[in-house]
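WARN retry 2 of 3 for item q-0093 after timeout on previous attempt; input resubmitted unchanged.
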Amino acid sequence: MNPLEYNSKIIDGYLSLLDNLSQSNKLDLIAKLTASVNADLSTKKSSFSEAYGAFESSKSAEEIIDEIRASRVFNRQIESF
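OK item q-0093 returned
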């Protein structure tokens, strides 16, 4: 079965379920679906723009390196044979 045909059958199934709703309920559903689609689109746009760029910090590179080195914890214990 073609994915387009499969999606069409799913949509037809939903439409048959929604036939019994009142007009106000249908309009409310349309508004909520529209808001959902708009939210999905804005999330996709913002997540794409956040996927690139440099690390931003007010600290210098040397300060960041010093913090990383200071946060290292060595707990390695060498066992004798």
